[in-house]
Structures are given as C-alpha cells and as structure tokens.
Amino acid sequence: MRVTGARPITLLCVVSALSVGYGLGGMGVAVAVGILSLPALAWAYDNASGTFLVLATVLVLTVGIMVLLIALMALTR
Asked: Which residues of the chain have pLDDT under 50?
C-alpha cells in the first residue's frame, strides 16, 4: 500500500498517536490526544472555507480552559 499526500499521512499519525496514547495511558490520554489532534485533522481535511479549522481550534481552546479551571479549583481547595 502506497501512502502519499498530506491527508493519509496526517490520518496515519493521528491513529498512531491515539493507539500509543491508549496503550500507555488509557482512555483519558486517548481522548486528550484525540481532542488535541482535531486542528491537525481540520487542517488536512477542511475545505476552502476553513469552518472546520475554526471550530476545531475553538473546541480545543474551550476544553483547555475548562481543564485549567478544574485544575485551579483542585489546587485551591
């Protein structure tokens, strides 16, 4: 099987990262890697409008802020 181009290589890297993340850290790490890989997938698979890229970036920022706030609440408690 010949894999060329940005799309298959990006997808292959994301699937590999998900597999390694799940194997080493479990489901939580796999979910975190999946969320963090959304902008890379959007960059490779989005059409010319860029809507998926913007939504993926906003989702990653929202989840990141939420995780930081939860960590701050845990530290101050």
From this structure: 1
Apex 13 CA angle, 51 and 40, nearest 5: 20
The C-alpha atoms of residue 9 and residue 47 are separated, in whole angstroms, by 18
Quick one: which of 64, 2, 9, 68 has its CA closest to 40? Answer: 9
Secondary structure class of 5 (helix, strand, coil):
coil
pLDDT at 3: 58
Q: Read off the tokens for 3.
A: 């894999």
- Identify whether the C-beta of residue 44 lies closer than 8 Å to the C-beta of residue 7: yes
Residues 53/42, Cβ–Cβ less than 8 Å? yes
- Please tell me the distance from the alpha carbon of residue 15 to that of residue 21, in angstroms, as a whole number: 10
